[in-house]
């Protein structure tokens, strides 16, 4: 599995598209990033499935599942 993956995601607040670089070498992670357009926090939850060689990214806004 590649350690770094780049994804395009939309801000759940304003819809602005941002590029996120994910580092899967440390396993599953949960983190926040700020939207450069509206400055709201974006909650990102990355799940690493090493058995199936997959990385899944879930995006939340205000504790609500968006994607």
Give the CA-based shape. Answer: elongated
Quantity of strands, as a count: 6
Largest sheet, if any? 4 strands, antiparallel
Tally of separate helices: 0
Describe this structure in words.
- Pfam families: Zn_ribbon_21.
- This is Molybdopterin-guanine dinucleotide biosynthesis protein A.
- The structure is a single chain.
- The chain has one domain (4-65).
- The protein is built from no helices and six strands.
- It has strands spanning 4-10, 17-23, 29-34, 41-49, 54-61, 64-65.
- The strands form two sheets. A four-stranded antiparallel β-sheet has the order 3-4-5-6, with no helix packed on it.
- It is elongated.
- The relative contact order is 0.27.
């Amino acid at each position: 599995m590649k350690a770094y993956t780049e994804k395009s995601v939309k801000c759940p607040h304003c819809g602005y598209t941002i590029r996120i670089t994910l580092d899967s070498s440390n396993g599953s992670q949960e983190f926040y990033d700020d939207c450069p357009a509206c400055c709201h926090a974006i909650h990102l939850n990355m799940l690493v499935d090493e058995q199936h060689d997959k990385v899944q990214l879930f995006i939340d806004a205000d504790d609500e599942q968006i994607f």
